[in-house]
Amino acid sequence: MSSPASSTGIRLLYVFVAVLFLVLLRAARRTLANYRGTRFSLARTVSFSCVYVGLGIFLSALSYLEGVPLLLAVPEVFLAVGAAIWSYK
């Protein structure tokens, strides 16, 4: 039988993912509608990247709070750094 805290955490995660999906869907629709002739600024691109990195850190932290061993954080950090380096090649 699971404790109430873990089911509350999972429920919070589901709500967060649903809201995130709706926000990203709206942003994608808006971007596609305004894409023609639009130039993207460096500051806006960097701010969006920071938001996505923050969301990734938040979701990773939630998994570690649910009981994932901290030893798995090391490969996750290496994968994130490798993905960041690979994306700029």
Q: Could you name the ranges where pLDDT drops below 50 across 5 or more consecutive residues?
A: none
Strand content: under 5%
- Fraction of helical residues: over 70%
**Global geometry:** flat
Largest sheet: none
Listing every helix as H and every strand as E from the N terminus to the C terminus, the arrangement reads HHH
Rg from C-alpha positions? 17 Å
Ends distance: 48 Å
The averaged pLDDT comes out at 80
Query: SS-based structural class?
Result: mainly alpha
State the helix count.
Answer: 3
Beta strand count: 0
Describe the model.
- The model has no long low-confidence stretch (mean pLDDT 80).
- This protein has three helices and no strands.
- With 89 residues, the chain is mostly helical.
- The protein has helices at 4-34, 42-65, 73-87.
- The protein is flat.
- Helix content is 79%, strand content 0%.
Any descriptors?
mainly alpha; flat
Compose a concise summary of this entry.
The protein is mainly alpha-helical and 89 residues long. 79% of the residues lie in helices and 0% in strands. The mean pLDDT is 80.
